[in-house]
C-alpha cells in the first residue's frame, strides 16, 4: 500500500514539472503604477516600443468641490545614473479639471538609451498661485 502511495506522489511530482510555467514579462514597464496624494490620484502604465516610451494613464481630482486650472503633467526619463534622457509635458484640455481625465504621452528615446525611472511633475494653478508636485517612479 505504501508503494502505491509513494508511486502516486512521485508520478504527481513528475507531471507537475512537465507543465509549462508562466512566462514573466522581462519588461517591468508593463506593470501598472499609481501615485496618490491629497489632491491627485494618478494611474499609468508605460511600454517601450521601438525608440519611444508610451505612457498611458488617468489623472483624477480627488477633491470633489475643487477645480484645478491649467493642469500639466511633465515626465522626465532618467537613466541608471539619474541623467536626463528625454522630457515631455502634457497639457490637459479642458483647462479646468474636475473629475478624471486620461492622458497619453509618447516620449522619443535617442541612441537606444535605457530609461530606469520617470520623474513626474504635475502643476496646476495660475501665475503666483501655481502648485507643483514631483515624484519618482521606477520602470
Give the key terms.
single chain; 139 residues; mainly beta; Immunoglobulin-like; 4-stranded antiparallel beta sheet; 49% strand
Task: Give a topology summary.
Layout: H1 2-18, E1 33-36, E2 40-49, E3 52-61, E4 68-69, E5 72-78, E6 84-91, E7 96-97, E8 100-108, E9 117-124, E10 131-138
Antiparallel strand pairs: 1-2, 2-3, 3-8, 4-7, 5-6, 5-9, 9-10
- The gyration radius over C-alpha positions equals 23 Å
Number of separate domains: 1
Uncertain regions spanning at least 5 consecutive residues: 19-27
Q: How many distinct beta strands?
A: 10
Q: How many helices in DSSP terms?
A: 1
The name of the CATH topology is Immunoglobulin-like
Shape summary: elongated
What is the gist of this entry?
This protein is mainly beta and 139 residues long. The protein has one helix spanning 2-18; strands at 33-36, 40-49, 52-61, 68-69, 72-78, 84-91, 96-97, 100-108, 117-124, 131-138. A hairpin with a 5-residue loop joins strand 5 (72-78) and strand 6.
